[in-house]
């Protein structure tokens, strides 16, 4: 075989073809079709996934959105007279001190948290204080304080007796707020 030089007068062979000398271009056999096998595998996987979804109860309608089908249960009776719209129930107003308290070792309610801002913070209560009286009522436990605060009126000043962590006693005035 003689090797030929490529020039402008002789075109380059197409990919997959070579010049075979005087006999013209030599054709190669076609490459094996791999794409067809890949397409079939993808189609088979998609079909299996669709069948699995249908058999598990998840159909295309579920994926598309809520069903517009009527319920199969008993139908409600038609109303003869319109009922007036019910007004929302009023929210009860409860007084609060904005404190978190627990039972103390001795009689009283120990303050473990003060909400800022809040009535207890405004009155000067801090963590570690022990409330001994509320509006003249002696407090033995934190439950006694909760009952006394619930019985008070929001916006009215109430005297407190407090034992500080240092052991000193102090009279404070607190104005319960409201929680809605």
Any chance you could write out the topology, listing elements then pairs?
Blueprint: E1 17-19, E2 25-27, H1 34-55, H2 60-64, E3 94-96, E4 99-103, E5 109-114, H3 119-123, E6 130-134, E7 137-138, H4 142-151, E8 158-163, E9 169-174, E10 177-179
Antiparallel strand pairs: 1-2, 3-10, 4-5, 5-6, 6-7, 6-8, 8-9
Descriptive labels:
180 residues, alpha+beta, six-stranded antiparallel beta sheet, elongated
Count of beta strands: 10
**Spans of 5+ residues with little confidence (pLDDT < 50)?**
none
Radius of gyration: 44 Å
> What fraction of the residues are assigned to beta strands by DSSP?
15-25%
Characterization of the model:
By secondary structure, the protein is α+β, with helices and mostly antiparallel strands. The protein contains four helices and ten strands; from the N terminus they run E-E-H-H-E-E-E-H-E-E-H-E-E-E. Strands 4, 5, 6, 7, 8 and 9 form a six-stranded antiparallel sheet that branches. A hairpin with a 5-residue loop joins strand 8 (158-163) and strand 9. The chain is elongated. It starts with 16 loop residues before the first strand and ends with a strand. The mean pLDDT is 78.
Give a quick summary of the entry.
With 180 residues, the protein is an alpha+beta fold. Helix content is 23%, strand content 23%. The mean pLDDT is 78.
């Amino acid at each position: 075989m003689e090797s030929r030089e490529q020039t402008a007068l002789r075109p380059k062979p197409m990919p997959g073809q070579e010049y075979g000398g005087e006999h013209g271009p030599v054709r190669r056999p076609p490459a094996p079709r791999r794409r067809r096998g890949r397409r079939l595998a993808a189609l088979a996987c998609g079909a299996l996934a669709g069948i699995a979804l249908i058999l598990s109860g998840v159909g295309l309608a579920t994926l598309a959105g809520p069903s517009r089908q009527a319920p199969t249960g008993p139908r409600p009776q038609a109303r003869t007279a319109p009922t007036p719209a019910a007004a929302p129930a009023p929210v009860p107003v409860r007084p609060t001190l904005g404190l978190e308290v627990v039972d103390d070792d001795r009689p009283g309610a120990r303050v473990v948290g003060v909400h800022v801002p809040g009535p207890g913070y405004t009155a000067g209560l801090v963590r570690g204080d022990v409330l001994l009286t509320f509006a003249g009522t002696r407090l033995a436990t934190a439950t006694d304080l909760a009952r006394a605060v619930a019985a008070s009126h929001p916006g009215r000043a109430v005297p407190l007796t407090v034992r500080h962590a240092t052991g000193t006693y102090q009279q404070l005035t607190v104005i319960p707020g409201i929680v809605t």
